Amino acid sequence: MALPVYDMLEKRQRRGSMGDLEDPSNFTWDEDDEEEYLTENDPLQRRRHVSGPLGPPPRRRQQARRPFLRRGESLQDHALRKLDAIKKSKAPPVVVMKKALKTPGRQFLFIALIVVGIGCTIVFGGGYYVYVKTSTYDGYSEPWYPTPKGGSTKTWAASYAKAADMVGRMTLLEKVNVTTGVGWMMGQCLGNTAPASLVGFPALCLQDGPLGIRKADHITATPAGISVGATWNKDLMYKRGKLLGVEYKAKGANVMLGPAVGAIGRFPAGGRNWEGFGSDPVLQGWAGAQTIRGIQGQGVIATIKHFVGNEQEHFRQPYEWGLPVAISANMDDRSLHEIYAWPFADAIKVGVGSVMCSYEQVNNSYACQNSKLLNGILKDEMGFQGFVQSDWGAHHAGVGAALAGLDVTMPGDNLMGDGKSLWGPQLTLAVMNGSLPVDRLDDMVTRVVAAWYQTGQDKWEEQGPNFSSWTDEEMGLIYAGSDDKTMGVVNKFVDAANFGDFSHRAIVRRVAAEAVVLLKNEESFLPLSRHGWSQSKPADRKCKVAVIGEDAVLPDGGPNVCEDRGCNKGTLASGWGSGAVEFPYLVSPLEAIESSFYEKDVELMIHPTNDLPSKKNKQLLAQQDICLVFANADAGEGFIASDGVRGDRNDLDLQKGGAALVQDVAANCGGPVVVVIHAVGPVILESFIEHPNVVAVLHAHLPGQESGRALMDVLLGDVNPSGKLPYTIGKSMADYGPNSKIVYYPNDVIPQQTLDGMIDYRWFDSQSIEPRYPFGYGLSYTTFALEDLKIISNTPSGHRPSTLPAKRPSNEAEPPKYNSILPRPQELLFPSGWKKIHKYIYPYLESVDDIKTGDYPYPDMTPRTLSAAGGGEGGNPALWEVLVTVEATVVNTGDRDGQTVVQLYLEFPEDVREDTGDASVVAPPQEREKYNNGFELERDRHEKERRDGDMREGSLSELSAVDAEIFRAAVAAANPGAPDTLARNDNNEKILFPPRQLRAFEKVHTYSSAASPKSRRAFNQVERDAAVVLGDRQTVKFELTRRDLSYWSVRQQNWMIPPLGSFGVQLPSQHDMLVSLTVGKVDAGVAVLLTDDKRLIEFPSILLPPDITSGSIVDVNVARNFTAEERATKAFTSLQSQLLSEFGSSSPSPPVLRCRNATQTSVVLEWDSIVLASSKLRSLSLYRNGNKAGAIPRPLEMTSTKISGLAVDTEYTFNLVLKTSAGMFSSERLVVKTHKMTNLTGITITPGHMDSADRAELETTVSRIGAKFIEQIRIDTTHFVCTEGRGPAWERARDMNIPIVTPDWVKACEREGRLAGVRGYYLDADPKLRQSSSLTTNQTNQNLNPASAVPERARQDSMAISPMTGGPGQPPSGGSGGAARSMAVPSTQITPPTPETSNEEFRSRIASGQQRSEQEGAAAKPETVLEQSEAEAAERESADAPSAPSASVPKTNGAEQEDGSGDLGSRTEETTTSVMPGGASLTAQHSDITEESAKDGEDGDEGEGQDFDEVKL
Asked: How many helices and strands (H and E) does the chain possess?
């Protein structure tokens, strides 16, 4: 799945300005703007200029949603309230400030706050500047214009006809009203539009879900989406949707902002995964579609969200996380269709009225203005007929977003409370000045009105909401977000929870109960009895039951103690954020436990905290018969942070010490331990899941208001657990794969994340990773078996269906057409005497002078070729044709009635290929008949094998090899010259599939003939009667459509059934053959079973029921698991190949050490990743000149390091020593020589902020002197060059102690022909220091020699420096050792090759400088050299760089000077695979480890040497 989702646009440079960035209605362009615009492929999809001519979004001055405002309080009211509080204090504000600053501590705090404020301003301002300056390339999203018009399907034809009549009579101002929200908190709902009063279209109320009506009274808090997904019950999905629809209508809300099918759970720690239904597109699709049917069946418009890729909360929208842009979710075309967009197609197929686009960017283009997504995928390919609305604050452009397919902006003001809109009056202006085509606005409005008619809202008896989102009082502000004080009745307290002909509480209780997944139940310990004991134990005394954990009780202050449930306190029944609701009540587990157990039989011990029990409590635990432990894990939307969790979870662990609590209770409880978990998704259970005292584990998810009662229904057996995991529970976070991690920190100026198709169980299966509990797993109190698998082809005569679907049909209806006559400008002005409400968004213009007509530089509006996969709601109607029917019989083999979920998985053919060229080859009809006949014969053969019991899996047939060759020949004859798309050759690309993919599921209720009437107490009379009639067998039928059997072909841009190969059908727990055996003898370990032919079979007695005795007859289900055998064979073959390739050698490979770069005083070394073969790692150490310098701290991760503080022009020998369980292995010795002062090739410059002219000149200078120029700071960066200190790169350079200099320093190096001191070239340095620096440099040049006067042996001895203090080879302060060290500073003989340059003068200057330094240095006095060396060391210290070792020699005349070598100080290690051979001249010779080194290595890592990322010598 590595093909790009769309054709990539090449990266293009951007100019620094695009007109007025703050006012999106300003369409004034100069000639350069227009020329740039017209030469680009799609300016509306740019990465930096988010929507073409409108420029980047206005700077947001506040976060979109403030969690700390009082209910009903706007930001302005909040500020006024704070001001009133100051005024009411004893002293005026100024006096209060003076009083506060009297003490020194408070003065310091005040100053610190000012400094922090200034720092934040610099950081955020610099970040935006860097973003503007560095975001120089476009996104990768293909342009798709113009927007397809709605009204093309017959199912919506009547509604569009009514809408066309109404819209045709609307004024331009009314059309704008319908498409623009009136502003944040400017109506009673979270989202409000203004009415079109002249034609009778009401203002619409849009209110958050998906758990219920947010910020409303007298409603039901239903279980979360993840709980609904865990039920796998399509009927309950519909009933919950119906409940929501009834309550929304009762409250007067027109549009429900739910259900959510994105996030789909690509990241298991994603903050909003709990709003959706699970980590599989088919499960999400069914649950979303059933919910929509329930909602819209009650006359409420449902909104499927978030389209698409909203998989994490970090960086989801600009400024919420400190960055000026949102993260980009990058997905390939196939993953988009098969995973992320799949459930949206299901929703459109059932007629959803609205789609909400998401916050983040998709392939570097904001989702709410991504024309490919909205126009190409949603409205063309999927045939969406409703309207697209933005998420709150996700609208970033005016005309650009409208042209890209956005229909409604919410809440209207893009900054959530500032009263300024990108649409509203700007949309009116855009239509009048010709920027926005009138027919686009007409389509936007028509889509909204058609959805209103489609759900029958024109027949509502009352229009408008009867509740307020901003106050609980009956009377409240009409415009709560404004300073207008108009009051009115805003809450009528309609009891929506009691509307309808059904019990709302009963539905949510049943959903919550069926969502409980029984993960572990050792020895059938559950269910419990109301007497407390497990049902298998008699009660001869009071049962002592301990209830432990904060999650068992309500929090102090009640279930709504935190706004939007934005904290993890007490029992967890909902995640936090806009998807949460106000609990009308919440039944805690403890409350239900107290009311469920018989008081006369059960004694409760309650410990309602997660604190580890004290010694006394441990003694009490030891006396308990049963311990119920409760723990949880919470998450939510990114605008709220709680307990260090900012939306997305930080890990998959139980929170607030839950795992430690379970371990402690399991270790001390006197009886079995039952663990109950409430969590937003998967949690890691490894710390306690195998503890022998933990006998049962239940995952109850997020159960809503009936939490405790639903849990006790399961614990007591009133409801047989039937929940199945809607995700996989791994053994560690790493099990989910490298692409499953949240991007917690920016990884680019615009953060990037990859969304591929190998999510959840697809990844586990493909990597053969054994999870703790697999997707779809869940236990029951009874047992089931599957029998009589049947696979029936629905194609004519059983023929194999065509590879591609039928041709896209023509539109079933014609979209409405309107005239494009514009009104007179005067009609668009505010009416005379109109009272304006502050911050209310009106469609009116202030002045007709604002209308400036002209040519608008549209993108290419040539109609695109319509998608072959489109043609109807949900896609091409042929995709929904049923091609195969699968039937099976479910048998209840246990002693309890219960439900189970039959899950059907498809295995796609293994060898599916597509030609890399033309893949549109088709067979002639007559030859296809031969092909189908061969297919039919093969199918008949498989049918016979299945009847004979030789096959476990049903096969959708396979073409024989002979027939395949005949078919290929026919294809070649019918398509002369065309490539053979079916041939298996190296030119064809193999299409990869996950090992299995869920394609259907069904929950069935079966009755046990052995069940007692008492066990059916939870069923009504109808169900009890049905148990007698239906018995223990139920037939389940699955219908597989063309879409189910297809994959998305990127080349064909269509759904495609593999032309050859067989499909496998998996039905978990399937058994094909039933054998009856007689028990001959049973002992403690082995039972002897007798077959009919008197054969003896030894069988583990532990696997038999406990009441089996000699003479009993047992039924044993036997089935050959072909799939498991095949996987085992593949796994063994793969392991064998891996052993041969990785562990075939007798010993690990020696490390390979290289030099990446060298300077005057430092060396950067790198090496290949170590290969251990079958051995175990002990240590990896670096040796210098035969002595151990230190141990590599993370040898399996690190591949490079830097050694600083070396002598100038000195040769060093390095080698790596790898110590393993198989012995010790050394790299070849690497000889590296540091550079002279006149050798500038080691300089590595990273540029910061500077003008383009300065940058170009800098690059030229760097090239001339032979230095290196790298864009990002790395471990080998020696200098950071800029003209202004701003931006993250500058901050990183400062933190890493990299010398930050101006471009003049590079010129000075070129001018002087040697490494210039940096003191005078710092950003804030006095230029006068450059003269003293030059003088010192000249003095140093006069004394540069004298290393040649020292014998080579002495120089090597002088540099044999241990990284520890003291030690052999470290020069003492003063004396001959110091002289030797100083004389070794400035000389070199071997340098790396430098780039060729045409500047002969520069070359000659270097040559003359070298000769002069050698001649003049010969007469220098040794003590003078020592002084200059110390001066250089002193200046290095002043630059926060490590000094030379002779640091104890006093500074001469206070002079401070730096050799400019750019030692970085302590730096983070960088892993890299790039090799820069120009860093230093080096020679390598193979040599075994010296005896001394080997002995040192055997002693381990203690003693000599140190752990390091960067070695300081």
From this structure: 34, 47
pLDDT at residue number 1394? 33
Q: What is the pLDDT of residue 979?
A: 43
1455 backbone dihedrals φ, ψ, rounded to 5°: -70, 140
Strands 1200-1204 and 1177-1184, bridge-based pairing: unpaired
Is-contact 1188 1178, C-beta < 8 A?
no
Q: Are 1474 and 1159 a contacting pair, CB within 8 Å?
A: no
Cβ(1148)–Cβ(1171) below 8 Å = yes
Token digits of residue 1015: 């066990």
Which residue from 382, 376, 398 is spatially nearest to 144, judged by alpha carbons?
376
Query: CA nearest 353: which of 407, 399, 391, 423?
Result: 407
pTM: predicted TM-score of the whole model, two decimal places: 0.65
Sign of CA dihedral 910, 911, 917, 920: negative
Query: Using an 8 Å Cβ cutoff, are 408 and 402 in contact?
Result: no
Check if the beta carbon of residue 1268 is closer than 8 Å to that of residue 1245. Answer: yes
Is the Cβ–Cβ distance between 60 and 53 less than 8 Å? Answer: no
Three-state DSSP class for residue 1037? strand
Contact call for residues 1232 and 1390 (beta carbons, < 8 A): no
Question: Contact 956/791 with Cβ under 8 angstroms?
Answer: yes
Interval 225-274: pLDDT, tens:
999 999 999 999 999 999 999 999 999 999 999 999 999 999 999 999 99
Catalytic residue among 208, 391, 653, 1463: 391
Lookup: tokens for 514: 């069926």
Q: In 3-state terms, what secondary structure has residue 400? A: helix
Beta-carbon contacts of 266 under 8 Å, excluding residues fewer than 6 positions away, are 279, 311, 739, 740, 755, 759
Residue linked to tokens 């947001």:
60
Q: Tell whether the torsion through CA atoms of 74, 80, 83 and 87 is positive or negative.
A: negative
Instruction: Note the pLDDT of residue 127.
Output: 52
CA atoms within 13 A on the CB side of 1168: 9
What's the CA gap between 461 and 468, in Å, rounded? Answer: 20
Q: Which residues of the chain have pLDDT under 70?
A: 1-110, 117-139, 535-539, 613, 797-799, 916-987, 1011-1031, 1068-1086, 1088-1108, 1110-1111, 1114-1120, 1122, 1139-1146, 1331-1513
Q: How far apart (Å, rounded) are the C-alpha atoms in residues 127 and 1292? A: 13
In contact, 309 and 360? CB cutoff 8 Å: yes
The Cα 876–Cα 345 span in angstroms is 11
H helix intervals, 304-408: 333-335, 342-349, 371, 399-404
DSSP state of 834: -
Whole-angstrom distance, CA of residue 5 vs CA of residue 405: 19
Query: Which run of H or E residues covers position 786?
Result: strand 784-793
Q: Name the token pair of 813.
A: 């209806």
Q: What are phi and psi of 702, to 5 degrees?
A: -120, 95
Question: What token pair was written down for 559?
Answer: 């279930």
Instruction: Tell me how far CA of residue 1269 lies from CA of 748, 1262, 1392, 1467, in angstroms.
Output: 20, 7, 16, 19
User: Exposure pattern of 727-752 as b/e (b: 16+ CB <10 Å)?
Assistant: bbbbeebebbbeebebbeebeebbbb
pLDDT at 1146: 56
CB-CB contact of 138 with 364 (8 Å): yes
Mention every residue, 6+ apart, whose C-beta is less than 8 A from residue 1186. 1213, 1490, 1492, 1493
Residues 6+ apart with CB under 8 A from 1083: 1101
Tell me the backbone φ, ψ of residue 1504, rounded to 5 degrees. -70, 140
- How far apart CA 1176 and CA 648 sit, in angstroms, is 36
Active site residue 235: no
